[in-house]
Amino acid sequence: MRAVYEDSSHIKSILIALARLVDEASIKFGKEGIELVAMDRAHISLIKLKIPKEGFKEYEIEEEINFGFNTQFLMKVISSARRNETIEFSAEDPSIVFIRIVGSIMKEFKINNIDISQPDIPELNLQFDVNALVNSSAFKKAVDQISSVSDEIDFSADENGIKLSTKSETNVEVELTKDMGAVSELELTKPTSSTYSSEYLSDILVLTNLSGNTRLFFGEQKPLQLQFDMENGGNVVYLLAPQMG
């Protein structure tokens, strides 16, 4: 098995988000690309990663390998990676995976492949009230502003755009609209609102580094789904359960 990814900063951002949610995870290196599914410790959020083999600079997989790892440890291994460096995963023996970060110098790490049981996650068929494409930078700033003063963020949408606001005594509202350039697409079946944990959203905002735009889905008392589509055809999907009551 050998897979070379050209922009190691993508892998770094994904691992930072993953390490904030779970202690252990497993990447499946399959014939058509890599996949990862992980559920957070409290079972209220879910992260899914897919990168097709075409998204790699080189991709050679003879037999499917599941690479299980401690997220904190692997994040430390890759913490020194820079945007202009490539990252290579390779294995001759499935029990050991080598990671090489190649730039002006080459750093090599030998990682034990640990057995991780895959989460049993039923297939979700969610019908959302809102489907919007928002500027990733504007979305990140909005969540940062509100999470600094509130444990919850209220998402609401109408034909004018999307509004993020506090659920605390400190009143903060941030509007994302087409007129402001923060929303490029907006489809909704009805005006709606729902509330989510600001802490969980803050934990994964590093994923906005993957794409200039974030696809956002939500509905009344339905999960929030964020989708980050990378230029190479890969994507990360994050699902967060609503705050009830």
TrEMBL record:
Pfam families: PCNA_C, PCNA_N
PROSITE patterns, sorted: PCNA_1
Swiss-Prot/TrEMBL keywords: DNA replication, DNA-binding
Classification via InterPro entries: DNA_clamp_sf, Pr_cel_nuc_antig, Pr_cel_nuc_antig_C, Pr_cel_nuc_antig_CS, Pr_cel_nuc_antig_N
Record bears the keyword ATP-binding: no
Keyword Nucleotidyltransferase in annotation: no
Record-level Gene Ontology MF annotations: DNA binding; DNA polymerase processivity factor activity
GO terms under biological process: leading strand elongation; regulation of DNA replication
Domain (Proliferating cell nuclear antigen PCNA N-terminal) ranges: 3-99
Residue stretches making up the Proliferating cell nuclear antigen PCNA C-terminal domain: 126-242
Chain's role: Sliding clamp subunit that acts as a moving platform for DNA processing. Responsible for tethering the catalytic subunit of DNA polymerase and other proteins to DNA during high-speed replication. Sliding clamp subunit. Responsible for tethering the catalytic subunit of DNA polymerase to DNA during high-speed replication.
Family: Belongs to the PCNA family.
Assembly with partners or alone: Homotrimer. The subunits circularize to form a toroid; DNA passes through its center. Replication factor C (RFC) is required to load the toroid on the DNA.
Designated name of the protein: DNA polymerase sliding clamp
